[in-house]
C-alpha cells in the first residue's frame, strides 16, 4: 500500500518539475496547485495506510482487501482521497493537471503525449488502490 502511494507521489513531483522548468507562468501556477493538492492528498493516504496497518498488522494490499467493508466512513474517506489523487473534478490536482496539459502543449507535442501516458498510469495506480 505504501508503494502505491509513493509511486503516485513520484508522478506528481515529475509534473511539478515540468511546470517549474517550463518557465511559463501557467506551468508554475499548475505546479503550485499540484504541490498543494498532493500535500493534502498524499498525507491523507499515508495516514489511511497507517490505519490499515494498525488494525490488521499488514501493509499488503491483498491482506487489507475487505477492511473497508467494516467501516463505511473510512471507505468514504479512502474513496475521496484516491479520487483526489487521480485528479477527479473537485480536487486541486485536476486544475493543476489541466494547466500542465496546456503548458506541455505550448512547449512540445511530445511532452503532451508523455504527460497523457503518465496521467493514465497514475490513474491506474489509484484505481488499483
Structure characterization notes:
There is one protein chain. The chain is mostly helical and 129 residues long. It has one domain (1-128). The chain has helices at 2-21, 25-56, 72-85, 92-107, 109-128. The longest helix has 32 residues, at 25-56. The chain is elongated. It starts with a helix and ends with a helix.
- Tell how many strands the DSSP assignment holds: 0
Average of the residue pLDDT scores: 85
The helix tally amounts to 5
**CA-based shape:** elongated
Q: What Rg is obtained from the alpha carbons, in whole angstroms?
A: 16 Å
Helix/strand/pairing category: mainly alpha
- How many strands, which pairing sense, and closed or not: the largest β-sheet? none
Low-confidence stretches: none
Q: How large a portion of the residues is in β-strands, by DSSP E?
A: under 5%
Count of spatially separate domains: 1
Helix coverage percent: over 70%
Series of secondary-structure elements, N-terminal to C-terminal:
HHHHH
The first-to-last residue Cα distance is: 7 Å
Catalytic activity: a ubiquinone + NADH + 5 H(+)(in) = a ubiquinol + NAD(+) + 4 H(+)(out)
Organism: Perna canaliculus
Transmembrane segments: 31-53, 73-92, 98-125
Family: Belongs to the complex I subunit 4 family.
What key phrases describe this protein's structure?
129 residues, mainly alpha, 5 helices, 0% strand, elongated, membrane, ubiquinone binding, electron transport, NADH-ubiquinone oxidoreductase chain 4, NADH_UbQ_OxRdtase
Amino acid at each position: 500500500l505504501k508503494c502505491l502511494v509513493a509511486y503516485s507521489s513520484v508522478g506528481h513531483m515529475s509534473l511539478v518539475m515540468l511546470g517549474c522548468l517550463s518557465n511559463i507562468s501557467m506551468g508554475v501556477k499548475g505546479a503550485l496547485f499540484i504541490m498543494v493538492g498532493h500535500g493534502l492528498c498524499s498525507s491523507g493516504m499515508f495516514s489511511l495506510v497507517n490505519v490499515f496497518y494498525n488494525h490488521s498488522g499488514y501493509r499488503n494490499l491483498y491482506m487489507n482487501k475487505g477492511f473497508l467493508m467494516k467501516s463505511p466512513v473510512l471507505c468514504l474517506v479512502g474513496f475521496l482521497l484516491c479520487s483526489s489523487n487521480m485528479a477527479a473534478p473537485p480536487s486541486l490536482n485536476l486544475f493543476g493537471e489541466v494547466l500542465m496539459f496546456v503548458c506541455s502543449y505550448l512547449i512540445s507535442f511530445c511532452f503532451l503525449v508523455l504527460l497523457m501516458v503518465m496521467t493514465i498510469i497514475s490513474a491506474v495506480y489509484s484505481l488499483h488502490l
